[in-house]
Each structure stands twice: as structure tokens, then as C-alpha cells.
Design goal:
0% of the residues lie in helices and 43% in strands. It has 61 residues and is mainly beta.
């Protein structure tokens, strides 16, 4: 499980996938996380579509 302010990488094909967790919804069977995207914007993602950001940044490679 991730925590607030954790850095994550979204499971999708795009150049920039990095994001930070700003809100948690633990009321469902699978936790949901509201993210702020590195490229701008926000959205909700299930835990299964996220990975921990290991290198401190994501260049899409």
C-alpha cells in the first residue's frame, strides 16, 4: 500500500508517467489513489495500476 506524498509510476504508455499521491480512498476492496501528474492534472487510480517510483524520476524510458 502507498501513502500520501509517495511517488508512483502509472501503468500506461506515455512519455511522462510519474505522479504523487495526494489523497487515499480505502473504502473499496482495492484502494484508490488520487494523483497529481508530473505533466499536470489529477486523477484517481487503483493500486493495481501503480508502481513505486524507484529512481526519483520517470523519463518514460
Amino acid at each position: 500500500m502507498f501513502a500520501l506524498n509517495d511517488r508512483v509510476v502509472r501503468d500506461e504508455l506515455r512519455a511522462t508517467r510519474g505522479a504523487a499521491i495526494v489523497e487515499l480512498d480505502l473504502s473499496n476492496e482495492e484502494p484508490l489513489y488520487r494523483l497529481t501528474y508530473d505533466e499536470g492534472g489529477q486523477g484517481w487510480w487503483p493500486q493495481s495500476a501503480l508502481s513505486a517510483e524507484i529512481d526519483g524520476g520517470d523519463d518514460g524510458e
